[in-house]
Every structure is written in structure tokens, then in C-alpha cells.
Input
Amino acid sequence: MINTIWGVMLTVIAPFGAIGLATLVRRRGASVEISRKLIHILLSNWILLALAVYRSAWACVVPACFVLLNYLSYRKGIFSAMERAQTDNTLGTVWYALSLFLLCLAGYTLRMPWIAACGMLAMGYGDGLGALVGSRWGKLHFPSPHHKKTFEGMVTVLLFSGLAVGFACAVCIPNPAPGFALRAALACAVPAAAIELFTPYGVDNLTLPLGVGLIVFLLARFPLLWPVFLCLDITLLILICAYYLRAITFTGLGTAAALGVCLFLCGGWLSFNALILFFLLGSAVSRAGKARKASASALHEHQGARSVAQVLANGLPSLLFALLYRAAGLESCLPAALACFAGAAADTFSSEIGMLSKRKPVCILTWKPVQRGMSGGVTPLGVAAAAAGALAVALLTLPGFGAAGALAIAGTGLASSLLDSVLGAAFQAKYQMCAPTALPQRLTERKSLNGAPLKLVKGLAWVNNDVVNFASILICGSLLALFWR
Output
């Protein structure tokens, strides 16, 4: 059960040694944050000692005792070197000990104690060094409510969490599968950074190690999940960068991440790549000529970062077709899923680049001039941009569907963009910005202005841009699925 009595004594003494060393460093003039993170990093190595000493769940006894001791220290300030300032104190030290207890219990019960090493070392080195780098050199702050976290700190967490997991797998697993340490490191790096970034202060000492431990466990038990974790890594990395750039909201990020994984599971790499390409291209063209588009963009209901509604309006139709392809075996639904992203890209290109046109837009139904940026308006530049956006996504499908198939998908995407303009002109809600007798008449898609509700003068109140996008993409995707050969 236990190698030696001296080993057991060492596992009991080691945590106090780390606390003592941090206390000495603090008395020598180090800041509170440095002493705390020194303990944070040093104590994570306790799991390596435990793996060398214990052969059963008796390893849980020491962390269980420290759950109680750390709580008493939190309340009474017993170990001042590891506590935050009184105004910013959290139960982080308690969650730290609790996560070690739970990982040891799960690891030894499952006869996979090395998952505890993966979780604890990822937290100790990833979170510990990330906090130090972020507080010392961090300049690039994320938007509220995560404004205290920095991009530099996030990258540090990503790198050192991956390295820690790779080291733990290479050293602690007896006879690991070839390449498993590298796969585990890659699978855990980005999720660890995301967990640390989006978890409230202190609680990440629980969520990060448990999350990493779970990923490594799943990867070890179900090796075929590796592509899913790779897909999750790519999605999260892109979305975190987009979140930093204020291109997507926090809730939109979570929705897009779930959408990406589901698309991969149902439609494979092709539909997933189409989603990523659409998001990257759409974000890029949204930033093109931003200052020149300001007055036209002000008419839109949604401004700035992509919301949950916008993510679903552009991505949900593709997921529905991918589900039909996977669950019902309808082969025509896979190109339809891809055509949905061609349509979403065409609409985004048409709207964002069309607003830069020097020619005044005209209503697609009446061919009369309309306000720049108003739904239903088209310009030659916007139509050409729509064709380019649809073609960019369709080019991904060349290896699988050939030139004829790619052309059909691009044509469907362009048709979706034109249908979007038709539905926008005929049914989308438009509100009066000024007195009805004022000339020229100023309309907007926003329901209120400066907190005051506006009067609906055209369209249906429940039909906004998201409804129009969803409907046009779904209709054209359905037609392609119906007539695909």
C-alpha cells in the first residue's frame, strides 16, 4: 500500500516546507502575489512525490487534511504567505486542496493516478506562471467582465499547461501509447487556457485541474476522441482571439464553440472548415473600412461583436443539414450544409463591402434609392462581393464534389444573399427615426434610439436581420438538398 514510512512523512512535511519557503521569500521583500504563486507552483509538484510513494487512495489523506487547514487559514490568516489581500481574498487555496483530493481519489480508483499529475501540474505551472506574466508584463486586456485577464497571461497558461501535461504523461504513465503525451498536451493546452480565462478568480483552482484531468482520462480511454479535441482546440483558439478583438461576445463565443464541435461530429472536417473559413473571412471584412461604414452600420440592430442570435442565424441551418446527413444518411444534406456557409459568407460580404460602394444602393424590389446600410438595398459592388464570398467557401468543396458541385454550392450561396435582400426589403422591421413628415424619410432597423422606442413603419415587428438571415440560408440550402444530383 505504501512504499516507506519515510516517504509518507515526506509527503506530509513537503507542503509545510513550500509554505515556509514562500514565507521566507515574502519577508525578503517579495510581493504577496509572488509568494502566493511560488506556493501555487511548488505545491503542484507534491503529486509527483505522492505517485512515487502511494499505491492506493491513501494518497487522498494529505490533501483532505489541507482542505480543512486551508479553510482555517482563509478564515484566520494562518498561512499569510498564500493568502490574498483581505479585500481581494477568495477560497482559491481551499479549491486547490480540494481539486488535489478529488484527482487523487479519481486517479487511484480508476488505476490511472497519472491523471492527477496532469491536472495539478497544468494548474501549478500554467495558472501560476500565467498570473505572474500577466501581472508583470500583461498589456493586452480582454473585454469586461474578464478585463483583469491579459492576452499575454492567457498564452502563458496555454503553453505551460500543455508542456506540463506532456511531461506528466511522458514520465508518469507506464508504457504510454506512442505519441500519447503529445496528443494529450495539444488536447489540454487551449481548453486549460480557456478555463483559466473564463472562470472567476480562485475557482479556476478547481475547474482547471479537474477539466484537464477529465480530458486526459477521456483521451486515454477513448483514443478516437483525439480529432474531436483537436477540433475543440482550433475552435477555442480562434474564438478567444476573436473575443479579445471584440469580434464576438462571451455568450456568442460559447455558442460558436458548441456549434463548431457539433458540426464536426455531424459533418466532419469539411463542414467544420467551412465554419472556420466563414468566421475568419466574415470577421475580416467586417473590419474593412470600419470608419467609412460607421453611419450606415448605425442603422443596424446589432452593432459590434457577434451575439448568440447572430451565431445561430448563420450557423444553425448548416447544423440542421449536417444532422440530417449523419442521422438519416441523406447524402444531399452535406453539400446543403456547406452551401449554408457559402450563403452566410455571401451575405456578410455583400453587407460589409456593399456599404463601401460609391454608388447609392437601390431597393432590390422597387429599384428606388434606399439608405446606405438598410436591408433590401443592393449595389453592383455588393453583389460582386457576395459572389466572391460564396465562391471562397465553395472552393473548399472542390476535392469532394468537383467543379460542378463547387459551382452549385457557390451559386446557392449567391442566391441566398439575393433572397436575403428580398426578404429584408419585403418583411424586415423598419422604424421611423424622425417625424413622419420629414424629408428625406430616415429609417432604421433599431427598435429604440437613446432609450426611446421607435415607431414601426414597415415590415413585421418580429422579423429582424437574424430571422431574415436564418430563413434565406435555410430556404436555399433546402432547395440545393432537394435538387442535388
Summary: The chain has two domains: 5-244, 308-483. The first helix runs from residue 5 to 27. The CA atoms of residues 266 and 322 lie 5 Å apart.
